[in-house]
Amino acid sequence: MAVKIRLQRHGSKKRPFYFIVVADARAPRDGKFIQKIGTYNPLGQPSAVQLDRQKALDWLQKGAQPTDTVRRILSFKGVLYLKHLLRGVSLGLFDEATAMSKFQKWHEEHEGNIRKQQEDAAKSRRPRRPLAPKRTEQKEEGN
């Protein structure tokens, strides 16, 4: 059975909200799924993503294939990097404690970058001064 990690759409028209689910590739988009592993709300600023990192990692290690959008979400949340590090552990390149310390370092840097981007965006969205009223000048005619 081919298993995919994909988005399942909910919400009303023009107001999407998605569940991140593990489903059989043959099942319809909003149909039967195996397990729900998170949510994604693209309308918020920034987009809100809730993800169970351990469940997603388990399914990736079992061979589930993420769709393009879910791959980007997993990459953003660090699941793909953690899978990469654990692959290095299984090959004997380093131990699990080293892998987890590398992931923690990456995670802290990533969270810092996100906070910095949010602060920069908040600064650029500061309220502007109201415009001065337009002056109405009357033309003087030189007779």
Q: Number of helical runs? A: 4
Amount of helix: 40-55%
Number of strand elements: 5
Largest sheet: 5 strands, mixed
Overall mean pLDDT stands at 88
At the fourth CATH level, what is the homologous superfamily?
A: Ribosomal protein S16
| Distance, first to last CA | 93 Å
- Shape descriptor reads flat
CATH class: Alpha Beta
Radius of gyration: 24 Å
Strand content bin: 15-25%
- Which residues sit in consecutive blocks of at least 5 with pLDDT less than 50? none
- Helix/strand/pairing category: alpha+beta
CATH topology: S16 Ribosomal Protein, Chain: A
Task: Summarize the helix and strand pattern as letters.
Answer: EEEEHEHHH
Q: In the CATH classification, which architecture applies?
A: 2-Layer Sandwich
Quick structural overview:
The protein has 4 helices and 5 strands; from the N terminus they run ββββαβααα. By secondary structure, the protein is α+β, with helices and mostly antiparallel strands. It has one domain: Ribosomal protein S16 (S16 Ribosomal Protein, Chain: A, 2-Layer Sandwich), CATH 3.30.1320.
